[in-house]
Design goal:
4 domains; six-stranded mixed β-sheet; 17 strands; alpha/beta; five-stranded parallel β-sheet; Helicase, Ruva Protein, domain 3; Rossmann fold
């Protein structure tokens, strides 16, 4: 864990050691109005100080998220100041600004753990861009800490701030303390079991452990005994009574992973348990009543399995009371960077290592990768990168030898949204209705917020507004 945990209400604070005469603004809090975030003036506070001794004293005593040290500076070399800053505030990014540094000196400072080294003149054109990169790094550290260490214990393993993840978190808050059955959809590696555990921890059943069963990992002839238990002599090898997972989960939560792989015969028995909250062990006529909250998950399209006769329709509707769709990592934008910071701190803490930092170009590479294995692949990649980096404090792109992502196979063949009747159809009107329906659905999901709806559809806000206006004007013509 990085030093100085950042509270959720914290405003990013940068300490800038600027020894030259004529500091920009007065000493103390200042603003950089040319740095913008989302169209609004940045709220980060920049404190200027001219004396290196005072700078290290403030850095030691204050709660700063980054240090920018401009040289030459009387009494200190860049190496000495970097070592002192790392000693008093390990894990906090330090940027050295010195136009006189040689290439070898820059390489040495980066090896020592400097977040970045700047040699450009810090004029009005250069400063905002370079400072924004530093502040963005500090914001990512702050956000990763806030999202993983916030007030709600159930969400600590669900790191992310994208619209898709916020919808998942909002759903967990609403249904966590209810008894309703939940079905989690999503690709392999997206974190379906983590969501199930978060639902359990957000409920009144959290005092007892959640019980998990992977339906695809058990042989078909054993899964019934695994779920419902058996009595001695029920079948060959049943040498004693055994509690099933439903009994183990009494007053708790039962997580049924990959429920789409459950045999059809067992699906009927599961449906009865969900409806009546009672069952019988194999080989016994005794009826056992249980109070179990069931959370199921699948990476397959269960509706398609229903159409193909591979999954019971009545069971599908019984478990799909509250559906949760886990987004693929490639759809989560800057969550990749948040998760990278989170996993680096997690791995370094487990290995009892100083927290490593990640170079900006490394973050860019991770953000551009499509992550076919989703969050699980990213976590494994970070663990490997920490190991490959050895004693080096900064993770570089070479520490992440990612395999080619390749084309992602589709779970099911694509099916057309519209079938063309024998008499034909009005193409423009039909496509217009579909577009309008998509826009309206996105607006409903975001409670009418056009900015969030545009992000959801990968559109610019102005594009969404123009499309909506045009399509609404055409709608009366389609009805004719």
């Amino acid at each position: 864990m990085a030093a100085h945990p950042i509270p959720a209400t914290h405003r990013i604070r940068l300490l800038w050691l600027l020894p030259e005469a004529g500091l920009p603004g007065s000493q103390g809090d200042a603003r950089i109005p040319s740095i913008e975030e989302g169209g609004r003036e940045a709220r980060e506070a920049v404190e200027f100080v001219a004396d290196s001794v005072e700078a290290t004293s403030r850095f030691r005593m204050g709660r700063y998220d980054a240090l920018l040290a401009s040289f030459p500076c009387q009494g200190w070399t860049p190496d000495e100041l970097l070592e002192e800053a790392q000693r008093v505030a390990p894990g906090v990014p330090v940027v050295i600004h010195d136009p006189t540094l040689t290439d070898d000196a820059v390489a040495r400072l980066l090896r020592m753990g400097a977040f970045d080294v700047w040699r450009e003149s810090m004029d009005a054109r250069v400063a905002p861009e370079r400072l924004e990169a530093l502040l963005e790094h500090a914001r990512l550290r702050e956000t990763a800490w806030r999202l993983s260490e916030g007030a709600e214990p159930w969400r600590r393993s669900l790191v992310g701030d994208s619209p898709a993840v916020r919808r998942v978190l909002d759903t967990i808050r609403l249904i966590g303390n209810r008894r309703c059955t939940v079905l989690i959809h999503g690709e392999t590696g997206t974190g379906k079991e983590m969501v199930a555990r978060a639902i359990h921890l957000a409920s009144g059943r959290a005092a007892l452990p959640m019980v998990a069963v992977n339906c695809s990992a058990l042989p078909e002839n054993l899964i019934e005994a695994e779920l419902f238990g058996h009595v001695k002599g029920a079948f060959t090898g049943a040498v004693q009574n055994r509690l099933g997972r439903f009994e183990q989960a009494h007053k708790s939560t039962l997580f049924l992973d990959e429920i789409g792989d459950m045999p059809m015969e067992l699906q009927a028995k599961l449906l009865r348990v969900l409806q009546d909250r009672e069952f019988q062990r194999l080989g016994s006529s005794e009826t056992i009543k249980v109070d179990v909250r069931v959370v199921a998950a699948s990476n397959a399209d269960l509706q398609e399995k229903v159409r193909q006769g591979e999954f019971r329709e009545d069971l599908y509707y019984r478990i799909n009371v509250v559906p949760i769709q886990m987004p693929a990592l490639r759809e989560r934008g800057k969550d990749v960077q948040l998760l990278a910071h989170y996993f680096i701190e997690k791995v370094c803490r487990q290995e009892d290592l100083p927290v490593k930092r990640i170079a900006p170009e490394t973050l860019d590479r991770l953000s551009r990768y499509s992550w076919p294995g989703n969050v699980r692949q990213l976590e494994n990649a970070v663990e490997m990168a920490v190991a490959l980096s050895g004693a080096r404090e900064v993770l570089v792109p070479g520490d992440f030898p990612l395999p080619p992502a390749g084309p992602r196979p589709m779970a099911q063949p694509a099916r057309p949204y519209v079938f063309v009747p024998d008499e034909g159809l009005d193409f423009e009107a039909t496509v217009g209705r579909i577009e309008l329906g998509i826009l309206e659905q996105a607006l409903r999901k975001t409670n009418g917020n056009k900015k969030l709806a545009a992000e959801l559809l990968r559109l610019k806000r102005t594009t969404l507004t123009a499309k909506l206006k045009s399509l609404e004007q055409q709608a009366p013509q389609w009805a004719c």
